[in-house]
Records
---
Amino acid sequence: MAEVKKEKQHISLNICDERIDIYVQPDAEGYYRDAEKLVQTTYGKFAEMFRGRKSERFIAATALLEMAVKYQMEHASKDTDSYNTLLQRLTSDIDEALK
């Protein structure tokens, strides 16, 4: 069956006072909008704490670091490899017992 190719759509995002124009799949737009809000919120938090005392680059780097750490923590908590391995072994054991 032929795959239907979706047209990408143009969206504009505001990240750290920069307008970013990109093309995305329509079903991915919500993710980009949510990411925009996350970046703005995180950046704003650090800008409030450090603006006037630290560079904008430092503020942006600190915000990126916080988002990356949260991503890594979330990713680690959803690591299912060990569960999948255990499930495969149990399934195999059950199959052998039923033979």
---
Amino acid sequence: MKQSTNHLTAQETERLCREYIDCQLSMLEEAELEYVLRMTDFESPIINDVKTIMGISKAVRFPVSTKQPQRHKTKIRRLAAAASIAVLLVAGVAVMKKSLNKDNTECIAYSAGRQVSTEKARQIAEADVQRMAQFIKTVASQRADEEAKVEKFIKTIQR
């Protein structure tokens, strides 16, 4: 899945959902699809089925409170959560890279329904690790952009 999540149409999302159901997506593509489904408001029978399979529930909207939110604590919590997730993902990628570099590691993969050699499986896994690392960077960049927009909006409101 090489498209940006900002430019997917409902039909493209449905196509990806069909590929998910037919087990034609890699693990990274499945993670990307899950991210897209969490961020999109598209609805159709197949999209809703895949959301159910992935355990994605509809967003719950809470009424606006009259209390002033504790912005400082919320911001610190969000940054701490984002930092924790980033550390875990980077550590996971590092462990996967390290384990793939060992000569005695046996890798098993299937392509077009047939098992491929250990070397080809290792290449597929390394490519997936690289795509996952790029996806992590993209998500982090998008999150930083969104947080900057929120900060700008809050500053505008406070004036």
---
Amino acid sequence: MNDEKVMIGVSDVMKKMGIGRDRAYEIMKSGEFKTHKVGRRYLVHYQVFENWLIGGKQTPSKK
């Protein structure tokens, strides 16, 4: 089994983009891509986030 995360959180977004926590939360809550709130955590599918970063489609591709 692959150990890569399928869903990433705010701290992962911060690291990937080199931004602070407030800005990462702002992006996650912006509605520009689909996020899931689990308890107090905001999560996004890693592929949706990657596609958003490069300006592509917002849905994960089927494998």
